[in-house]
Predict the structure.
Amino acid sequence: MSTGSDQEGELLARVFLSRVLEPGDEVAGRWLRELGAMEVEGRLRDGGPQLVGITDKRWAGLLDRAREAEPERDLAAAREAGMRFVVPGAGDWPGQLDDLGDARPVGLWVRGRPSLRMWALRSVAVVGARACTGYGAHMAATLGAGLAEHGWVVVSGGAYGVDGAAHRGALGAGGATVAVLACGVDRCYPRGHTELITRIAEQGLVIGELPPGGHPTPSRFIVRNRVIAALTRGTVVVEAAHRSGSLATARAAQRLGRHTMGVPGPATSALSAGVHELLRSDAVLVSDAAEVVELVGDMGELAPERCGPVLPRDLLDPGARRVLAALPGRGAAPPREIARGAQTTQDDAIAKLYELRSLGYVERHGDGWKLTRQAMISVREGRSRC
Amino acid sequence: MSTGSDQEGELLARVFLSRVLEPGDEVAGRWLRELGAMEVEGRLRDGGPQLVGITDKRWAGLLDRAREAEPERDLAAAREAGMRFVVPGAGDWPGQLDDLGDARPVGLWVRGRPSLRMWALRSVAVVGARACTGYGAHMAATLGAGLAEHGWVVVSGGAYGVDGAAHRGALGAGGATVAVLACGVDRCYPRGHTELITRIAEQGLVIGELPPGGHPTPSRFIVRNRVIAALTRGTVVVEAAHRSGSLATARAAQRLGRHTMGVPGPATSALSAGVHELLRSDAVLVSDAAEVVELVGDMGELAPERCGPVLPRDLLDPGARRVLAALPGRGAAPPREIARGAQTTQDDAIAKLYELRSLGYVERHGDGWKLTRQAMISVREGRSRC
């Protein structure tokens, strides 16, 4: 059995590794799998014995970084600034990231209140070109809003163009959105999205593998994309030129067995050419949020809805229980009213509502929220599972 | 063995039936299969015994039509006006129409010089909305031109919008095109396409199941679509709203095992919604002629090219032999020059060049035509097949 201090040691080791290792390093991922985070940390702190599969020069580079790492300080500063660090196996760890194998993140830095694990359960990635057309921005915003209205969480990369439009669409519809950054989550990149990313951190989640202060590089954008692909049920590419980074996200989703979708555009548009290339392989053409939901909602998720919520009420955190109790017995209520009943802020109520949505307790109804039929039955019959 | 007068009897019987039966009537198709055209003609002329699978009222209707039919006069008038009637099994019959089973046309009325059988071998249908957008017209014209430049014959329905743009694109690129009408081929429908259809009859082929003077009806448009689908290697839908007739053509192509393709458009366009619906089923997304050719050229056709032309030179008709002889031994020549060498008109030379293209003798090269490598080898080695 693991003790509290083991868990703290594992957490600190992984904070240390998040500063020392480069995201997506599969060789290091193998060390972690074979030796455990604390042993790998020890070797790097002690300068050896050298680990396998790496040149002397790169090993020396890691030791340089290791000498400067101060995980306790990192963690304290992060907590001070409202960030947390989530590690594999922890309560809020999204298990689907384990599909990445040795490329799994050593941990994720998180800004924002909602449960990452719960939100990721019902999430879809909407990605695409930074320099998108007006059509691309329109489609991304419409999809973001439509997915939010269907009770799905919109995941994207926080970039200009399609990403930003998708986040804004979700936020504008009173929905849930997650930005996965290629830099430290205390930074706002790109600069022009400072306000947007700040708002996402307040109303949703901003996550990333880089430690506080970490800066984005071209290769970090590429490895970041695998997290977007793995975290979600499926990836929709809205606009992408040939050889666009969004196509890499889509291909990663395909390799991981996630749904891969593309929004068509004029055959004359270079910014749709990459999407069309994708649609000529295994991706599914989607024109609106309903078609996305039809596809990503087709497996796994329906089962708990048919037989009642997956998690007993008693195991919900107190905040979620309060929000659940604030829902009317019949019909829907707006988030404002639910927040009042639960004595919390509207942002917090929405965060909790999307968590409860993942668990099958509630569903969106226009701009409001209501109990699912299954949740009502489970209350009436005094049971929380079928 | 069938004699000349048998053949003439069969031809006249089918001319008679093309006036009496409604195109696509599968019950009548079964009579033809089981009893032969001449026996069916006899029963209809004699007023019985009544054939199976039909109400008394419909039988009486057919007898009314039969009393007015004058096949000898029809055929003579048609020949006078430069039309011919091609029946199953005849030299110019496109064998792929036999895939229609009992819905196979009893025969086809044809205006234009080229060989229907040869042209159909390497043909693609380009169809779509009558009230298309500027984008749809642009894509249809570009595809029509591109297919012609790749040496493929463009088949469509002669209608306004996408059909007309596809025909014009092919003609404009010095290419081959076939209009399949839902009325008598002596008529120009729609009226506004009188000039276009006349030009197609001069430079290409205008074909249809209805006898001279036959007028189009809504149901005739629908049954006409199966001929477009069956005649060609594949069908491309350029723009189509939900429940559009072009989608029926595409579905018929799918049922017949032909390639079905769609040109994407903005997800916001109602005129692309039907195409997107198609692309969400089994159709392949195509953005240009090269992608169409890649798909439709992938089977059957390549074999004869690899091992030499399919038909020995001696069996070519004298006109085709003259055109073939007019091609330069090396490099390409424009149709004008080839026509001069073959002592014929440019239209006739182009018609023959597309026939020779189907047989693997020649290929387009920019605006000109040249011998295929296989054709040159077969000449050099004194053989016409490998």
Notes: Chain B has three domains: 4-82, 112-296, 302-380. Confidence is low (pLDDT under 50) at residues 299-308, 382-386 of chain B. The first helix of chain B runs from residue 4 to 20. The interface with chain A takes residues 135, 138-139, 263-268, 272-273, 276, 279-280, 284-288, 291 of chain B (CB under 8 Å).
